[in-house]
Amino acid sequence: MKYQKRKKAIILLADGTIFYGKAVGSKQGTAFGEVCFNTGMTGYQEIFTDPSYYGQLMVTTNAHIGNYGVSNEEIESDSIKIAGLICKNFSYDYSREAADDSLENFLEKNNLLAISDVDTRALVSYIRDNGAMNAVISTDVDNIEGLKKQLAEVPDMNGLELASQVSTKEPYYFGDENATYKVAALDIGIKKNILRNLAKRDTYIKVFPYNSKFEDLEAFKPDGYFLSNGPGDPEPLVEAQALAKEIIKRDLPLFGICLGHQVIALANGVSTYKMHNGHRGINHPVKNINTGKGEITSQNHGFAVNREEAEANTDLQITHVHLNDHTVAGLAMKSKNCFSVQYHPEASPGPHDSSYLFDQFIENIKRN
Ligand SMILES: NC(=O)CC[C@H](N)C(=O)O
């Protein structure tokens, strides 16, 4: 593959702006999605397989993608979930002893369209100024008008329900069935490393489809409940919100991450909104209000919880704040055994500063 002439490709944004690149490998075609960027210097495989990114065209700001190959251990779900990849230099060669394959083969197996040789700095500054928006990437470079028409039909991320597209169809189990604690987890796009983190803390988990009822989860006789991360807008997730309300009403231990955090806010009557650009990277500073300590966190979200409404809710405490823009990064209910964070304590990719939140969940379970 290495020295062949690459096919031209374009990135067409919903506002008509065009960027140019070349197709990675031999794949040709067209892919639609919301264009967003991740600033992590490592962790591309975890990012590409994170179900939270379903429906998004991912721009990686690291100048090199693919240079350390892929490993069978570093997947966050069983397939690539991003809609397409946009990068600067794509490494066809890779170098890492633990790697199982090249990124090029991994993308090909997952049938993913990727575009390299893009001026990603210019593209990222453009999105930073103008906000996340729908886009199309394509090797069909002479069909701009046709692509524009198709792009106009792609639904806006605002209001879009996507959790049902990535959730498990059937319940399944994770961990050791003789573990001390049992947790019922709602899969609205769950990352594997959340399950690994719970299992590591002596927990046996049953994972449920996105539209499961409280009675379904309760039948497992869990000691605690978990609401996962996931793609799309949290607002249309009415079943998950109803489930959260049932758990909260009974004051059972509840922990939510990212989309799960947003669902918990909505269940408390606090609204969510689409951010200009969202947070996607592995070096986002967060302050824990209760300890005064800072944490460097892994983040991936395009929506956030309304801060004024959270402050006005007398049963909610804002426990964590994002230090770059002061958005809500964590919530706890004062009268209930329930807390949540907007970021990713499971890392994968990213730093492990926040893994204490899993310990906190186990403590809440014990206390109950
Ligand atoms: N990682 C997540 O769970 C993301 C939640 C939601 N889809 C958002 O973009 O805000």
From TrEMBL:
SUPFAM superfamilies: Carbamoyl phosphate synthetase, small subunit N-terminal domain, Class I glutamine amidotransferase-like. It is an enzyme of class 6 (ligase). Keywords: Amino-acid biosynthesis, Arginine biosynthesis, ATP-binding, Glutamine amidotransferase, Ligase, Nucleotide-binding, Pyrimidine biosynthesis. The active site is at C258 (nucleophile), H344, E346. GO terms for biological process: 'de novo' pyrimidine nucleobase biosynthetic process; 'de novo' UMP biosynthetic process; glutamine metabolic process; L-arginine biosynthetic process. It comes from the Bacteria. Residues 7-138 form the Carbamoyl-phosphate synthase small subunit N-terminal domain. Transmembrane segments: none annotated. PROSITE patterns: GATASE_TYPE_1. Residues 1-181 are annotated as: CPSase. Its EC number is 6.3.5.5. The keyword Oxidoreductase does not apply. One of its GO terms (molecular function) is ATP binding. Pathway: Pyrimidine metabolism; UMP biosynthesis via de novo pathway; (S)-dihydroorotate from bicarbonate: step 1/3; Amino-acid biosynthesis; L-arginine biosynthesis; carbamoyl phosphate from bicarbonate: step 1/1. The keyword Nucleotide-binding applies. It catalyses: L-glutamine + H2O = L-glutamate + NH4(+); hydrogencarbonate + L-glutamine + 2 ATP + H2O = carbamoyl phosphate + L-glutamate + 2 ADP + phosphate + 2 H(+). L-glutamine binds at S52, G230, G232, L259, Q262, N300, G302, F303. InterPro entries: Anth_synth/Amidotransfase (IPR050472), CarbamoylP_synth_ssu (IPR006274), CarbamoylP_synth_ssu_N (IPR002474), CarbP_synth_ssu_N_sf (IPR036480), Class_I_gatase-like (IPR029062), CPSase_GATase1 (IPR035686), GATASE (IPR017926). Composed of two chains; the small (or glutamine) chain promotes the hydrolysis of glutamine to ammonia, which is used by the large (or ammonia) chain to synthesize carbamoyl phosphate. Tetramer of heterodimers (alpha,beta)4. Belongs to the CarA family. Small subunit of the glutamine-dependent carbamoyl phosphate synthetase (CPSase). CPSase catalyzes the formation of carbamoyl phosphate from the ammonia moiety of glutamine, carbonate, and phosphate donated by ATP, constituting the first step of 2 biosynthetic pathways, one leading to arginine and/or urea and the other to pyrimidine nucleotides. The small subunit (glutamine amidotransferase) binds and cleaves glutamine to supply the large subunit with the substrate ammonia. This is Carbamoyl phosphate synthase small chain. It comes from Mariniflexile litorale. The gene is carA.
